[in-house]
Amino acid sequence: MTTKVDGVPGPRNNGHEMAPLNTRARGDGTHGVTIMLSPPDRSSIGSRDGAGALPDGDPDRAAWSGKMQFFLSIIGYSVGLGNIWRFPYLCQQNGGGAFLIPFMIMLILEGIPLFLIELGMGQRMRLGALGVWNTIHPWLGGIGISSCIVTLFVAIYYNVIITWCFYYFFNSFRYPLPWAVCPQLNGTDVEECERSSETAYFWYRTTLDAAPSIDETGGFKWWIVLCLMLSWTVVFFIVMKGIQSSGKVVYFTPLFPYIVLTIFFIRGITLKGAGAGLMHMYTPKVEKLLEPTVWLDAATQVFYSFGLAFGSLIAFGSYNTPKNNCVRDVLLVSVCNAITAIYASVVIFAILGYKATLGVDRCIQVNKHILAKHNLLPSMDVDNSEYEHAMASLNDTMTKEWEFEKCSLEDQLSSAAEGTGLAFIVFTEAIVELPGSPFWAVLFFTMLLSLGLGSQIGILEGMLCTIFDIDIFKRIRKPYVTGVVCAFCFSVGLIFTTGAGEYWLKMFRLFCRYDRVGRGCAYGNDCRHIHLRTRKVHRRYLPNDGHSAGSLLANDLAIYWSRHHGLHSAVLYTFDVTTKSNVRRMEWGIGNCRKQIIS
After folding, report:
1. 305 labelled as ligand-binding?
2. Is 83 annotated as a binding residue?
3. Quick one: which of 133, 266, 363, 411 could link to 407 by a disulfide (CB 3.0–4.6 Å)?
4. 347 annotated ligand-binding residue
């Protein structure tokens, strides 16, 4: 006997209306979670008539108030913290300007096709990730559920980064900046701060109060707990009504970072050493292109910058009308994303070039003092040519005994970090050197907050849209469900407010899994619905055999990444702020990471 789900409208319209969740076995013996669109007489996405007609999805679904709102939401989600603190580092480490070659190739072969597929699926079916995959085939419903789970993990740890930005933002109103000077104990500077740096000490000891290892929590840090509560409160009020509330915020969060970047750009290019920083950044090292890890880093950056496989792009697309030209949207967002990453790199390394130049000047002054002390220089006021002549006259014994510092601009620039190290240590140290440093600190961390909140809106929207694919949740007001989700995430996120919080965050962040199964089933042999809406054939990305070039490439990269980096990188180290070195690894942490990879 065949069981049929009647299209009974729910008691409340929250923008996610859909037929009930059917978990019963079908009469043909096929088992699985089945979601049918309402009304029930519409054909599933797997059935196509001769004319290529496909169902238009839920006509009662919430929709964007305008094209600009949709575009800014996608930009806010895609252009995130990785464009600021990861892409510049990857350029520096992977061949400078030569890294743009694999990045652009991966953008074309991998990023744009997968971006188009995810956005197109959501737009065509007007469903979230769970509804889309169930409509493609009931057996693929687990992909939507797993996407929701992974998105939950990402939302939990991503908001911790926003929490740290809030903490630094509040401290930016102090003068002098708290990370500009070492704290004093009994009238003298703390020894640990003197051996490392003021910014590193403030990050590891004042902000995180880092524990010696991951198995020593060190208790909750109340200042981080309060900032975490503030972060989740802000996020809740932004997303509590879906795009009706978040759609208003996106007019600020994606645009403000560009204003700040432009201000920093104008200031940065006028600073001494900015040109040296840019030359170091973009001088191409073509031989690096022969290393497989360079191409892997480029592909990984494309994945992260677009936010693929989280279900958020499907959710954003589902609020469009089926006749929207999603191909044009994808191309515009892709170009904007790439330009933003390159533009941010110019700004970052212009400022870091200034910092490196000042570091070299201080280093030379220290060496001049040593030379003058041993009567090799008449005074410390001599020019650099005389200093270099005196340094060249030294033998190896004198160099070792007198402990000269190596004053190299290249070494100073090569010490740039990525992620939190760049934002909270390296760049904050550069900000300290700028006149009016509190003003620049406020601008910088406001920009990071805007970028972080913009991405967090998209992450949560993808997860909440998936939750509302399940009929039972459509009977509950969306603010209530959103409040429960935010409260749960806050509770789990408390683990990141302990002394071992950063170790846990790295474990959450570094290990993820890729699901790229079933996209060919959604579009058949010729990507018919995109042709139906745009009147263009896009077979260069979606060939006739039904396999996207981007999907195939993503599968290969996921396998290579898990083999090359997964098990070998599944190591958690403790960190000594004074030596900046790894101390020991936690074997139980390796097992945890392996479980995350397998899942």
Report:
1. yes
2. yes
3. 363
4. no
